[in-house]
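Justification of resources, computational component.

The compute hours requested in this renewal are based largely on the per-chain cost of generating structure records like the one below. Each record pairs the submitted sequence with a full structure-token output. That output is archived, and it is also reused by downstream analysis tasks.
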Amino acid sequence: MIFLECLIPDHPGSLIELIKPISNNHGNIYGILHFHDRKKENMIPVSVNFEIPEELIEASLERLKKELTEKNIHIEKLTMGDKTRQDLIVILTGHVFDTDIVDTIKRLAAKNIKVPELQAKFTEISEISNVKLKLVYPESMTEHDLIQEISSICKEKNLFLIRT
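The structure output for this chain reads:
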């Protein structure tokens, strides 16, 4: 997995100008986060996760960097993901915040499970909420083991787990 963090100009079509070069250079996009609410000096932060076939990575990334620079897209960070890790998206429903989401994340981290992305709409701490988590876990752990671990925490905290 390749992770790109960049700044695009705030005008119509800029996101397409970012996506086209990725696709044209053999990139298969898995996710885009567009942070319009974090705009600074007419530039919007965007994060893109994508893959390029192993044999094409070096040449494709060089062309991609050149094309993005020519389109006034500022690359902040371009990193390769850890191939020894896997990820899974889950949704926790219930009193996720009231039962201490930080504790949940720390308990997962103790098992070498990271939470690089969390999405939630926060209202009141005592209200029922839905929280989407991206869980990244080591290749040595099976998806079944991961689900058992998160299910155990959910059972203890009376949360409902949804696998996506």
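The mean pLDDT is 89. The domain at 85-163 is CATH 3.30.70.260 (Alpha-Beta Plaits).
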